[in-house]
Amino acid sequence: MLTTFDKDLLNLIQTKLPIAPRPFAQVAEWLKVDEATVLARLNWLKDHGYIRRFGAFFDSSCLGYVSTLAAVKVSPTCIEAVAGAINAFPGVTHNYEREGEYDLWFTLLTPDQACQDLALTAIRNLPGVDSLISLPATEKYKVSVEFNL
Amino acid sequence: MLDNLDKKIIAVMQGDFPLVAEPYKELAGQIGISENELLERLTKYRKSGQLRKMGAVLRHREVGYAANALCAWIVPEQHLAKVGELMSGFKAVTHCYARIPQPEWPYNFYTMLHAHTRDECRCIAAELAQAAGLQKYTLLFSTREWKKTSMSYFPEYAKGEEAT
């Protein structure tokens, strides 16, 4: 169970890690505890699976990467094999099975368009894949995976 | 433009962030630069928007947000900007994009919704639809997570090899 302190710490640490020599000392000051307490609690929260990843999050398009959201219709018996083959691409960061017409929805990040085209063609040709749609973004209005605890 | 040192910094920063008193000093050591230079470059990336955030991404199921739905919408082209701004203002909307539709899939606008239950997702979608004056949407609930990971940018720079 998360304590009230854990929730305060997680709410703060989702966006506000300072870029400074002693970032956790600053966080500790905000929460009116000492640095060692913050570090011990963060390590515990990470070890117990509450924190997926800690650190720097970059904007792929600002770094020159090309991205898309794609979906495939897959024969029911092939889902696991197709999911595994899609996951094998290093630029696939998310791959979810969803209810509805298309079975697997995945995001693909590649250094350029040619790499994206190659990957999508390979995925479209996987055994069991009936069809594939690619839905590149034209505008990004919000990316903010923060939760109020 | 990113130089080779930028790429190396970004590649190393995609790895584990040390949960120690002086994490940037440790990372600077791995990169082979001073702590000061690393702090300056990171501050620069943040100002330019290349660095979206420094902090934690939580496992949403573990912190109580068990339901997530990708909500696909049909939005008239001329209303995209207005709807994008409106929907981005909702806490439950974590991602909001306009996308190019396909002949067999006409949805051109996408919001990711996170909530505690599926019913809550449905209520939020209905609320969004009403607020934006939209009728055509579909909620795609996830049934299984096959992969969720962070991108490794410029992986060839991570190990200290000088790529050309």
UniProtKB/TrEMBL annotation, chain A:
<dbReference type="InterPro" id="IPR050684">
    <property type="entry name" value="HTH-Siroheme_Decarb"/>
</dbReference>
<keyword id="KW-0238">DNA-binding</keyword>
<dbReference type="Pfam" id="PF17805">
    <property type="entry name" value="AsnC_trans_reg2"/>
</dbReference>
<dbReference type="InterPro" id="IPR036388">
    <property type="entry name" value="WH-like_DNA-bd_sf"/>
</dbReference>
<dbReference type="InterPro" id="IPR011008">
    <property type="entry name" value="Dimeric_a/b-barrel"/>
</dbReference>
<comment type="similarity">
    <text>Belongs to the Ahb/Nir family.</text>
</comment>
<dbReference type="GO" id="GO:0016829">
    <property type="term" value="F:lyase activity"/>
</dbReference>
<dbReference type="InterPro" id="IPR040523">
    <property type="entry name" value="AsnC_trans_reg2"/>
</dbReference>
<comment type="pathway">
    <text>Porphyrin-containing compound metabolism.</text>
</comment>
<keyword id="KW-0456">Lyase</keyword>
<feature type="domain" description="Siroheme decarboxylase NirL-like HTH">
    <location>
        <begin position="6"/>
        <end position="52"/>
    </location>
</feature>
<dbReference type="Pfam" id="PF22451">
    <property type="entry name" value="NirdL-like_HTH"/>
</dbReference>
<dbReference type="InterPro" id="IPR053953">
    <property type="entry name" value="NirdL-like_HTH"/>
</dbReference>
<dbReference type="GO" id="GO:0003677">
    <property type="term" value="F:DNA binding"/>
</dbReference>
<protein>
    <recommendedName>
        <fullName>siroheme decarboxylase</fullName>
        <ecNumber>4.1.1.111</ecNumber>
    </recommendedName>
</protein>
<feature type="domain" description="Siroheme decarboxylase AsnC-like ligand binding">
    <location>
        <begin position="63"/>
        <end position="142"/>
    </location>
</feature>
<dbReference type="InterPro" id="IPR019888">
    <property type="entry name" value="Tscrpt_reg_AsnC-like"/>
</dbReference>
<dbReference type="InterPro" id="IPR036390">
    <property type="entry name" value="WH_DNA-bd_sf"/>
</dbReference>
TrEMBL record, chain B:
<dbReference type="Pfam" id="PF22451">
    <property type="entry name" value="NirdL-like_HTH"/>
</dbReference>
<comment type="similarity">
    <text>Belongs to the Ahb/Nir family.</text>
</comment>
<feature type="domain" description="Siroheme decarboxylase AsnC-like ligand binding">
    <location>
        <begin position="63"/>
        <end position="147"/>
    </location>
</feature>
<dbReference type="InterPro" id="IPR053953">
    <property type="entry name" value="NirdL-like_HTH"/>
</dbReference>
<dbReference type="InterPro" id="IPR040523">
    <property type="entry name" value="AsnC_trans_reg2"/>
</dbReference>
<dbReference type="GO" id="GO:0016829">
    <property type="term" value="F:lyase activity"/>
</dbReference>
<dbReference type="GO" id="GO:0003677">
    <property type="term" value="F:DNA binding"/>
</dbReference>
<keyword id="KW-0456">Lyase</keyword>
<keyword id="KW-0238">DNA-binding</keyword>
<protein>
    <recommendedName>
        <fullName>siroheme decarboxylase</fullName>
        <ecNumber>4.1.1.111</ecNumber>
    </recommendedName>
</protein>
<dbReference type="InterPro" id="IPR050684">
    <property type="entry name" value="HTH-Siroheme_Decarb"/>
</dbReference>
<comment type="pathway">
    <text>Porphyrin-containing compound metabolism.</text>
</comment>
<dbReference type="Pfam" id="PF17805">
    <property type="entry name" value="AsnC_trans_reg2"/>
</dbReference>
<dbReference type="InterPro" id="IPR036390">
    <property type="entry name" value="WH_DNA-bd_sf"/>
</dbReference>
<feature type="domain" description="Siroheme decarboxylase NirL-like HTH">
    <location>
        <begin position="6"/>
        <end position="52"/>
    </location>
</feature>
